[in-house]
Design brief:
Length: 224
């Protein structure tokens, strides 16, 4: 059951700070206790050095931070956020993401956030872009810039979760276009769920080709 204003989304207990959305006790249960590679976010023997996969074939971004795998109750919150019109969950989920970021060491401070754009029709059907709402919520706590139109989607693409990893990469080829300059800036791509990483990889390559100093990926869920 979902909360009314001022109650924790998970346990329904009153919140000292309603904007948090999730109480401190429930928040602790949402974070991954698994050791993950700092670059790809997948299971690894060390959280301090890239895994064997990244040493052989590194992703185009430099660091990835995730709250957890796509597992309940976090996955249920993300699903309600995206598909049940619960845009008010953006602040609570963004706070969880910020807490996950602050648990990491050695991350360059972001100068600009990037949201993953939706195709116009999909945006219209959903009523909002979940990545855009997360970015807007994060800028309330972070001293960095965010412009929703930095990157736009210039053609429609098939829904990613219906495709294989190879077809996901093909599906997104040349699907995005840079609209604003970012030369020499430390960028962070914010997304809700990263599965194969095809979407954030395509955007990362676009940012780096156009002079970004570094690219991080921050996501709520990294599917394993």
């Amino acid at each position: 059951m979902l909360t009314v204003h001022g109650l924790c989304w998970l346990c329904q207990m009153p919140l000292a700070l309603p904007a948090w959305g999730v109480c401190s006790r429930c928040s602790k249960t949402l974070f991954s206790k698994m050791c993950g590679c700092p670059q790809c976010g997948l299971p690894s023997a060390s959280a301090d050095a890239p895994c064997g996969r990244c040493l052989q074939k590194p992703p185009p971004w430099q660091r990835l931070v995730a709250v957890n795998d796509y597992l309940p109750p976090l996955s249920q919150m993300v699903h309600r956020f995206k598909f049940s019109g619960k845009a008010e969950l953006a602040s609570a989920l963004a706070r969880l993401l910020l807490l996950a970021v602050r648990q990491q060491s050695g991350l360059p401070p972001p100068e600009q956030l990037i949201s993953v754009p939706l195709w116009q029709r999909r945006h219209w059907r959903r009523g909002f872009n979940q990545s855009d709402l997360l970015c807007k919520a994060l800028t309330a706590w972070l001293p960095c810039e965010y412009h929703s139109r930095t990157i736009c989607r210039i053609r429609p693409t098939a829904t990613q979760h219906q495709l294989s990893a190879r077809r996901r990469r093909q599906n997104l080829k040349n699907a995005f276009q840079l609209e604003l300059p970012l030369q020499g800036r430390h960028m962070v791509i914010v997304d809700d769920v990263v599965t194969t990483g095809s979407t954030v990889a395509e955007i990362s390559r676009l940012l780096l080709r156009n002079g970004a100093a570094s690219v991080q990926v921050w996501c709520l869920c990294r599917t394993l």
